[in-house]
Design brief:
single chain, 8 helices, mainly alpha
Length: 183
């Protein structure tokens, strides 16, 4: 494939401006929702708090929509995976190690870590017992890493046909309905 053909193929996978604007608005509303819930505002009006909690899947949906187009525009599968993992896990490692360094400088000692605590840190599933500070919201990064790993084969298959993505979406919807029925 020549450079011009590659450029035309890549241009095919660009999100149109109006759709990108819609996705950006959904992303913005989802982020505002996360901030409001983490500020405790979901408890302010208890009858409406469940509405805010039900909007969390929108953030995952928007992330998936953006991820699919990102995969389609990437040079190759390895480049896509490296870029996704660095963008998700990179800030976690930088902030985590910086926090530990600051803790060590302030307290003039390092927190006690065992081998399994380090493994949990590196796999983005640390518990509060592993750190001298709360890590409650890290579950989202861990969930996103799992979603990237699970969705990657579907992205590869979908370059030939979108039918697997449609079947996956329908299957996910049915599973979520079945799960809601058990709650």
């Amino acid at each position: 494939m020549t450079g011009k053909e590659e450029l035309q193929d890549t241009a095919r996978w660009v999100i149109p401006r109006d759709e990108r604007l819609f996705i950006d608005r959904l992303r913005g509303l989802s982020i505002i929702r996360v901030v409001l819930v983490h500020l405790g505002l979901s408890w302010f009006f208890p009858p409406y708090s469940q509405f805010f909690h039900n909007l969390l899947p929108v953030l995952f949906f928007v992330s998936g929509a953006v991820s699919h187009f990102s995969y389609l525009r990437s040079m190759n599968a390895g480049h896509y995976l490296l870029k996704r993992f660095l963008s998700m896990v990179g800030p976690f490692y930088i902030i985590g190690f910086s926090s530990i360094l600051i803790y060590c400088l302030i307290n003039l000692q390092s927190p006690e870590f065992d081998f399994f605590a380090i493994v949990r840190w590196l796999t983005v599933i640390p518990s509060n017992a592993d750190t001298p500070f709360p890590m409650g919201q890290v579950w989202f990064i861990h969930a996103m890493v799992i979603i990237v790993i699970i969705s990657f084969p579907f992205f590869v298959i979908s370059k030939a046909s979108v039918a697997p993505l449609i079947l996956c979406a329908i299957g996910s919807f049915i599973i979520s309905l079945a799960h809601q029925a058990t709650i």
